[in-house]
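Table S2 (text version). Query chain:
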Amino acid sequence: MNPPTTQSTPIKPSTPARPESFEFDSGQTLRETRTDTTLSVIVPVYNEQFLVESSLARLEVLGESSLLERIKVIVVDDASSDGTPEALARFRESCKSRNNPKFSWFFARHDQNSGKGAAIRTGLVHVDTDLVVVHDGDLEYHPVDMLKMVEVFLYEDADAVFGSRFLSGGYKRALFFRHALGNKFLTFLCDFVCDLNLTDMETCYKMVRSRLLKSIPLESSTFDVEPELAIKLAKRGARIFEVPINYSGRTYGEGKKITWKDGVRALWAIFHYALSDRIFTEDESGGEILERLNRAPRFTGWMADVVRPFVGQRVLEIGAGTGNMSVHLMPRKSYWATDVNSHYLDYLLTLRASRPYMRVTRTNAMERESYPRGQSFDTVVCLNVIEHVEDDLQALLGDGSRLLLFAEQEGEQGHHCLPPKIRLKKPGLTWSTKRIGLSSPRKRATRST
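Corresponding C-alpha cell output:
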C-alpha cells in the first residue's frame, strides 16, 4: 500500500499525452513511428536541503533537446526532517517564472519516511508519458546523460536502458573501493539469476517504457527496489540496454546515505525476487498465469507438439498472450500474433525483432472489425480463448472447418482442468460438434504430465 501523501497542484498543467509509441498502420500491425518522445522524471528526495534545488535545476538541460517533446518532473519529498520542504517551496515558486513550455512540475510529500521504492510508487501514479526515469535529489548523476538513454529507445527496440557507471566512455569520481567491489558483487549475483551481463545493476538511472513499468508490481520500499526492478524486467523478457554515464559520487561527509545495511537488503532482495513469479500486476487477463506457463517450457512444448501437425503456413493466433505458444509454432511464412492486452502486445513486439515473418496487432475474438484486413489464413490458433467468449458455439461456426479441441481426461475424482463452461463429457462433446456442423471428433489419447 502506498504511504499517504499530500499533493500540491502542478506548476503547469500537463498537456494531453501523446499516443502510445506504437500505432496501427493500414494493415493493422503495430509499428514504431516516433522520432521524439515524452519523458517523466521521478525525483525521490529525503533531507537534501542544500542540494535539491541545484539538482532539479540541472534537469532543464533536457528541454534543449529535440528528442524530447515533453518532460514531466515529479518530485516526491519522503517526509524530510530538515529544510528540504522549504527548499522545494522556493524552487516551486521559481518555476512560475521559468519559460519552458516543454516542462511541467508536480510536487508530492509523504506523511512519513517510507524509502526510495515507496517514493517511486507514489511518482508512478502521476506518470503520463512514454518513458520514465528516476533521478536522485543530489548531484551525483548528470541529467544530460538521460539524452543518450532516450536515443536508444528511438533507434533500437529497447524496453529499458540502464546508465552504467562502470562502462568505459564516461568519467567518475574515484571513491570507495569497497563500495565498488560490493556493487560489482551484487551485479554479478543479479546477472547470475537473470542470465544477463549488466555492469551496473545498482545504478539510479534506469529508464523504462512507462506502460511496462506500470504493469510490474514493485514491492520494495527502500534501495532494494534496484535489484527488484532489474530482476523483474529480465523475467518479463524486456530488451535491456546499457549506456555509459558520468558519476560524481560523494562522501558521507558530503551527505551520502547508502550503508552496508542496504547492501544486505539488496542481497536478500536478489534471492527473494529470483524465486518470485509476481512480475505482472493483477489483471483480468491473468498475466501471472502466463508467466508461470512461461516457466514450464516442457508443458508448453508438449502442447505445441500436439498442435503442430495441424498448423499451416499462414497463421492467426488469437489471444497470444506473451507468446508462450507462438515461439514453439514459428517460423511460418506468415504468423500474426494478436491479443487485447496492451502489455502483452508490447512483449510480443520484442519477439518480432528477430522474426520478420511475424506481425503483432490487437484483435478481439468477438469484434469482426478488429481482425487483420486483407489477409487470408489457413490456421487460427486460439488456445485458452474460446472458454472466455460469450457465444462459444457461434465462434466455432465455419464451412469446411476442422476443430482441434484439447480436453482433459476425467480422473477418478471427476475433476477437469478446463473451465466449467466447457467441461464436456463425451456425449456432450459429440452433441456440441454436431450442433456447430462439424463431424464427430477424432479421439486422440493424451496423457497429462
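Notes on Table S2: The longest strand covers residues 68-77. DSSP finds 14 helices and 14 strands in the chain.
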